[in-house]
């Protein structure tokens, strides 16, 4: 790569997996003189790995050590507790950096659009996940677990995460980094059954086999599957490998090898939520029975038969997918909930986005596992570097990142640097150690700032 003598400066907005993979892809290029600054609205990095991945999945969370290595590189800086659009603006970033990469994920949830959805007791799984994972924005939410049956709508891995957490013995969860406030509420839960409802069939479920297979071990109970819903059917050979494996696991559950425990998960299919009923909170869920039809393209869709069934419940969690939110001034595809892009380069009909790129879920939608983001971020970085080569991306004639710390200190005096985050990290790990937990999460930003700033200052 041709050198101008001035380093390429890149700002990454968001510090989740896709942001870190983008940083890594830039910093590991030996032929590139590059500086990467990562901006994060919260005081802590790692995004979905800290706040999305379930606390009882420590192996998945251990990928954070890869991010810590990237953060330790000399040409990398972390600026936490800085909100783009509030403390600093998009334009200020493009004025100072050669390229700006948005790695902001999908922070909204999808609605069901049915009567009664706004009743207390009807909640987004996204909120519940944020709450039990100690996300500061969700830490003060309250969830009423006094009913006996909870219902989870959706058949993705988030649905299974939420169902598993609600059904796991509290002693198991107590060994994880689940937020303490959630642990206390789960310990008093009256829930004995979590009904997970899919609108299509068992063969169309979006969850992956390891997540399905681990349920009995984690919940210490069998899983209730109705044999008729997983019966053999013509054309089964054409299914994907994952669908075939999932069916195999569910058939084992239906055969009832493991006893149902006092608290268990029930999987039911071909049912859509139609209405939530209750006087001042959710008391019942009306489900519509669906029939499946296969289109010419092979896609299997659900169609209402008009048949209804009513389920008593006090808690309905919709786990029907995340949704990206628009960024002021950048184009937005309302239908898909993503920022329109070409290999990660933001497409802007009116021009003006020539320095801006996207990675991760805001680029492609909320799909794939954590590792999927590595390839996705590499694609964006390749495009950025190709734009640099072709002249489509012109470097500024000075290193605008040199005086960034002073500028940021003016805008956000409570800036959390990598050093500040390490103090928070160390405090959390130390609090977890005596209890055999990986960490005890701090869920309050002010408390985190006290640790990150006071001690950091004391050490200087
Ligand atoms: P997802 O995998 O896209 O699943 C969404 C589910 O919601 C699908 O079953 C979908 O059914 C259903 N749905 C959508 N609209 C609905 C409606 N109106 N009524 C009823 N059902 C509806 O999304 P997710 O569970 O949020 O997960 C997001 C991504 O994160 C996925 O790629 C997932 O694998 C990943 N993830 C991975 C892990 C892990 O690796 N352990 C954990 C959590 C999340 P249709 O198929 O019929 O549309």
Give structural attributes.
single chain; 460 residues; alpha/beta; Rossmann fold; FAD/NAD(P)-binding domain; 2 domains; six-stranded parallel sheet; 18 strands; 33% helix; binds NADP nicotinamide-adenine-dinucleotide phosphate
What hetero molecules are bound to the protein chains? NADP nicotinamide-adenine-dinucleotide phosphate
Termini separation (Å)? Answer: 39 Å
The average pLDDT score comes to 95
The main β sheet shows up as: 6 strands, parallel
CATH topology of the largest domain: FAD/NAD(P)-binding domain
In the CATH hierarchy, the architecture of the largest domain is 3-Layer(bba) Sandwich
Description:
It is a single chain. The protein has 460 residues and is α/β, with parallel strands linked by helices. The protein has two domains: 8-107 and 324-413, NAD(P)-binding Rossmann-like Domain (Rossmann fold, 3-Layer(aba) Sandwich), CATH 3.40.50; 110-322, FAD/NAD(P)-binding domain (3-Layer(bba) Sandwich), CATH 3.50.50.60. Helices cover 33% and strands 19% of the residues. The radius of gyration is 24 Å and the shape is globular. The structure holds NADP nicotinamide-adenine-dinucleotide phosphate. The site of NADP nicotinamide-adenine-dinucleotide phosphate has 24 residues, from helix 7.
């Amino acid at each position: 790569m041709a050198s101008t003598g001035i380093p390429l400066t890149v700002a990454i907005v968001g510090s989740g997996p896709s942001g870190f993979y983008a940083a890594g892809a830039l910093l590991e290029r030996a032929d590139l003189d590059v500086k990467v600054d990562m901006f994060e609205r919260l005081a802590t990095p790692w995004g979905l790995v800290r706040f999305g991945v379930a606390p009882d999945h420590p192996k998945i969370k251990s990928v954070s050590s890869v991010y810590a290595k990237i953060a330790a590189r000399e040409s990398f800086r972390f600026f936490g507790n800085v909100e783009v659009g509030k403390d600093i603006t998009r334009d200020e970033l493009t004025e100072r950096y050669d390229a700006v990469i948005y790695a902001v994920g999908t922070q909204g949830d999808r609605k069901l659009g049915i009567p009664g959805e706004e009743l207390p007791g009807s909640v987004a799984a996204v909120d519940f996940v944020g709450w039990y994972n100690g996300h500061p924005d969700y830490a003060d939410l309250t969830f009423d677990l006094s009913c006996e049956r909870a219902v989870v709508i959706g058949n993705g891995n988030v649905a299974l995460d939420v169902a598993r957490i609600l059904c796991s013995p509290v002693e198991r969860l107590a060994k994880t980094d689940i937020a303490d406030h959630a642990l206390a509420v789960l310990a008093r839960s009256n829930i004995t059954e979590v009904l997970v409802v899919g609108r299509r069939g068992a063969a169309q479920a979006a969850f992956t086999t390891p997540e399905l297979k681990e349920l009995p071990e984690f919940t210490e109970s069998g899983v209730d599957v109705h044999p008729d819903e997983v019966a053999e059917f013509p054309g089964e050979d054409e299914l994907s490998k994952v669908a075939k494996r999932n069916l195999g696991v569910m058939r084992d559950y239906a055969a009832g090898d493991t006893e149902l425990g006092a608290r268990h998960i029930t999987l039911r299919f071909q049912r859509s939520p139609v209405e939530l009923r209750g006087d001042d909170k959710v008391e019942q869920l009306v489900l519509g029975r669906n029939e499946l039809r296969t289109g010419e393209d092979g896609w299997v869709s659900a169609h209402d038969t008009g048949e209804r069934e009513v389920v008593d419940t006090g808690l309905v969690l919709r786990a029907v997918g995340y949704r990206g939110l628009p960024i002021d001034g950048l184009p937005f595809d309302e239908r898909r909930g993503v920022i329109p892009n070409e290999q990660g380069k933001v497409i802007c009909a009116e021009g003006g986005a020539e320095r801006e790129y996207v990675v991760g879920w805001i680029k492609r939608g909320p799909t794939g596992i954590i590792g999927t983001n590595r390839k996705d971020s590499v694609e964006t970085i390749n495009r950025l570097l190709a734009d640099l080569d072709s002249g489509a991306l012109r470097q500024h004639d000075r290193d605008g990142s040199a005086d960034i710390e002073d500028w940021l200190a003016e805008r956000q005096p409570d800036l959390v640097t990598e050093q500040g985050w390490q103090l928070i990290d160390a405090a959390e790990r130390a609090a977890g150690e005596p209890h055999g937990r990986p960490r005890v999460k701090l869920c309050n930003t002010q408390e985190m700032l006290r640790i990150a700033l006071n001690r950091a200052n004391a050490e200087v």
